[in-house]
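Renewal narrative, Specific Aim 1. Our central claim is that a sequence can be written position by position from structural information alone. The example that follows is taken directly from our test logs and has not been curated for this report. It begins with the structure tokens describing the chain, in the order in which they were read.
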């Protein structure tokens, strides 16, 4: 499993983040699903391939939405992350959802009648399966959006082939209004991707980060910008209540510290190299003249790194 997969799954597994994604994407930001009504679901399922072997398939994140009064399952909701367009995505989602419906059937119970002693199978309540695909790619996701988009169907068979749509959330192409529907740390992620797509620049908000650990790790791998992890502290109390403005300020300060330390190390290496070559006058001149020092650093760069 790749680093991006792990960090995305860990971040979205927070109940408040997961509920916010569903509420923002499906219910226009209304809090229909609360974080307290979610329970982790099994992400693994099995299928049989042509080689007759049993294989496993794994969702990214899956949770049960429960009726808080009686703890009955109202739905199973899954979230899949995509950084690239997958033309087989409808087939994959069908596989996940089909396995989940099969599990529902397998959960029917055998109960014994207290009068006759006979056993009978009691059917549990069936509930819907919903899967969202969060797409973070650079180019818009146009197709596939349903099973028809993934199949080459002869015209005379089309009326007899059941279609199956998928729910793709094209995160970088969300509107500012849509981003505003989110209230959790996911809003920070969505806001970043939307800004980068629209303006190529990022102006951080003052929204406080609730899950600093998960968010900074995810930002680090999604953006390939290691500054987000350089400011991370193992002391979570120190990180509590930060916003992205403060994170980037710390990153800039940390970068300057690293740059200054690196510069001193390079200059010391340069002086040692010059002295080893017997170029004492160059050392003296470099100490007195910064421009000449920079010239020597550039001249001997390959020998210093």
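The sequence written for that structure reads:
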């Amino acid at each position: 499993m790749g680093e991006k997969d792990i960090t995305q799954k860990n971040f979205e597994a927070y109940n408040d983040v997961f509920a916010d994604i569903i509420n923002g994407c499906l219910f226009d930001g209304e809090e229909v699903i609360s974080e307290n009504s979610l329970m982790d679901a099994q992400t693994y399922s099995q299928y049989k391939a042509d080689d007759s072997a049993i294989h496993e398939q794994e969702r990214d994140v899956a949770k049960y939405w429960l009726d808080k009064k009686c703890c009955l399952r109202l739905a199973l909701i899954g979230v899949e992350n995509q950084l690239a367009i997958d033309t087989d995505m409808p087939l994959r989602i069908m596989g996940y959802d089909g396995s989940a419906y099969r599990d529902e059937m397998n959960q029917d119970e055998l109960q014994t009648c207290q009068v006759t002693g006979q056993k009978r199978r009691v059917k549990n309540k069936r509930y819907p399966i919903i899967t969202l695909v969060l797409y973070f790619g650079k180019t818009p996701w146009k197709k596939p959006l349903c099973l028809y988009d993934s199949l080459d169907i002869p015209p005379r068979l089309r009326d007899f082939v059941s279609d199956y749509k998928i729910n793709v959330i094209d995160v970088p192409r969300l509107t500012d209004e849509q981003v505003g529907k989110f209230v959790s740390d996911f809003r920070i992620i969505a806001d970043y991707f939307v800004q980068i797509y629209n303006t190529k620049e990022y102006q951080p908000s003052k929204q406080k980060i609730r899950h600093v650990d998960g968010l900074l790790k995810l930002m680090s791998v999604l953006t390939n910008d290691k500054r987000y992890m350089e400011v991370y502290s193992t002391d979570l109390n120190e990180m509590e209540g930060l916003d992205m403005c403060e994170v980037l300020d710390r990153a800039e300060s940390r970068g300057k510290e690293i740059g200054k330390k690196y510069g001193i190390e390079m200059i010391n290496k340069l002086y040692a190299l010059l002295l080893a070559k017997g170029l004492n006058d160059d050392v003296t001149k470099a100490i007195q003249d910064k421009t000449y020092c920079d010239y020597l650093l550039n001249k001997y760069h390959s020998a210093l790194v």
